[in-house]
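Deliverable D2.4 — example input (structure tokens):
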């Protein structure tokens, strides 16, 4: 202040504050980070639903934003672009599918558990005809030859399922003529084929008949 004998210095504002008015630098508002107004996993699940129904190319950015209930900026901040979002959806789907493999990976798993796994698979297709095929199969058919990151995720998913099936078949294979590794490959192909058939309009009874015939062949070998 003038007349106080002290030199005048310009007021330095703390970096986390902004003046409400440039004419009154004694009043400030605190800039606080805005919390996310959505749950990332819930948003991913809604994106998964759309991608699963319509595929990657068939799901527009506008449709994704509407389904997820978020803004474009929130999408970019949390998930990146549309491709990055799709890859995160595949990662979340893989986590969910890994839980289903626990039935096959448990100690003492056998052909009965394999049959139960496929019965549940067909049951899910019957309950959700809008999905039909496994999301990894949908992604592989659409993008598997175009996008290496999608291809890697599909292959990792298939390998986990194969290993789980092989584990469940090994005990029975000791008393049969078939090879557990080869049969596991065959059953992975069966799981994909069932999804394609479901999407093409084959009903649950037809899918169960296919599974039943395959299990019967394994049991009789």
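Example output (designed residues):
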């Amino acid at each position: 202040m003038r007349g106080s004998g002290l030199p005048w210095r310009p007021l330095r504002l703390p970096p986390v504050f902004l003046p409400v008015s440039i004419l009154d630098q004694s009043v400030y508002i605190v800039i606080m980070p805005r919390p996310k107004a959505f749950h990332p996993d819930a948003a991913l699940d809604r994106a998964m639903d759309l991608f699963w129904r319509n595929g990657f190319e068939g799901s527009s950015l506008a449709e994704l934003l509407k389904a997820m209930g978020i803004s474009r900026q929130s999408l970019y901040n949390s998930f990146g672009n549309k491709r990055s979002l799709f890859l995160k959806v595949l990662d979340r789907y893989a986590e969910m599918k890994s839980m289903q493999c626990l039935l096959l990976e448990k100690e003492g798993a056998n052909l009965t558990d394999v049959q139960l796994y496929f019965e549940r698979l067909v049951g899910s297709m019957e309950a959700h005809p809008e999905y039909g095929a496994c999301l990894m199969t949908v992604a592989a058919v659409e993008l598997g030859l175009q996008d290496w990151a999608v291809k890697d995720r599909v292959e990792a998913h298939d390998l986990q399922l194969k290993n789980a099936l092989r584990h469940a078949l090994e005990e029975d294979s000791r008393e049969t003529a078939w090879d557990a590794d080869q049969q596991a490959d065959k059953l992975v192909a069966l799981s994909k084929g069932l999804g394609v058939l479901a999407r093409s309009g084959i009903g649950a009874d037809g899918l169960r008949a296919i599974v039943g015939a395959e299990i019967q062949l394994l049991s009789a070998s």
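The first strand starts at residue 17 and ends at 21.
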